[in-house]
Specification:
The protein is elongated and about 100 Å long. About 55% of the residues lie in helices and about 0% in strands. With about 200 residues, it is mainly α.
C-alpha cells in the first residue's frame, strides 16, 4: 500500500513544525466562508417581528462592517468579529434607550450599557491599530546633556507650514532655535556696571 503523497506523515515532521490542519480536514473555502458568515450573523439581534428583507439587510450590513475592517490574520479576524458584535450591541442599547414610555431607570441602564460598549469598541480599535503597527508611538528621552556653548530645545517640535509650504525638519528646528533665541534675549536684562573711581 502506497501512502497518499498529498498528505504529510506526522511522524516524519520535526517536533517544532506545525502541521497544516486544513490538510487533514475535509473543509473547502465555501464551508469556511459559510462558517464565518454564521459567526457574524449570530452577533446581530434579529427581533421576531422583523421582515425577512430587514433581517437580510442587517446581516449584510454586519458582514460589510466585518469586511470593511479587512482582517489579514487570525487575530485581526477574531477582533473584527468582536468589534462588529460590540457595535451592534451598543446600537441595540441606544435603540432600547430611545423606546418611549419606559422608566427612567430602564433608560439610564440602557444608556450606561451603551456607554460601556462604546468605550470597549474604542479599546478594540486601539488594539487593532496597535497590532497593525498604527498605534501612537511615544519616545521618552530621560537624559539630555548640553555642554558649554551648546543649545537644546525642550518640548514638542512639530513641523508646520510657512507661506503655505511644508517646512523641512531643518527649517522647523531653525524656527524653534530662532524663537528660543529671541525669547532668551527678551528675558535677559542688561546689567549695570558701576564704575568706581
Amino acid at each position: 500500500m502506497a501512502k497518499n503523497s498529498s498528505k504529510t506523515d506526522p511522524a516524519a515532521l520535526p517536533s517544532h513544525e506545525i502541521l497544516p490542519v486544513r490538510a487533514y480536514l475535509d473543509v473547502n473555502e465555501v464551508d469556511l466562508e459559510t462558517q464565518k458568515m454564521n459567526e457574524i450573523a449570530q452577533l446581530v439581534r434579529l427581533p421576531d417581528g422583523l421582515s425577512k428583507a430587514a433581517q437580510n439587510a442587517r446581516l449584510a450590513r454586519a458582514l460589510d462592517l466585518y469586511e470593511g475592517l479587512a482582517p489579514t490574520d487570525g487575530l485581526e479576524g477574531m477582533l473584527a468579529a468582536q468589534m462588529v458584535g460590540t457595535h451592534h450591541a451598543a446600537l441595540e442599547c441606544l435603540r432600547m434607550a430611545a423606546v418611549p414610555g419606559q422608566t427612567f431607570a430602564g433608560r439610564d441602564m440602557n444608556l450606561k450599557h451603551a456607554q460601556k460598549l462604546m468605550a470597549l469598541y474604542t479599546q478594540q480599535v486601539a488594539a487593532l491599530n496597535k497590532h497593525r503597527g498604527k498605534g501612537q508611538q511615544k519616545v521618552t528621552v530621560e537624559h539630555v546633556n548640553v555642554h558649554a556653548g551648546g543649545q537644546a530645545v525642550v518640548g514638542n517640535v512639530e513641523m508646520g507650514k510657512r507661506n503655505g509650504q511644508a517646512l523641512s525638519k531643518s527649517d522647523a528646528i531653525r524656527d524653534v532655535q530662532n524663537v528660543s533665541t529671541s525669547t532668551a534675549k527678551r528675558q535677559r536684562k542688561p546689567t549695570k556696571s558701576k564704575r568706581r573711581d
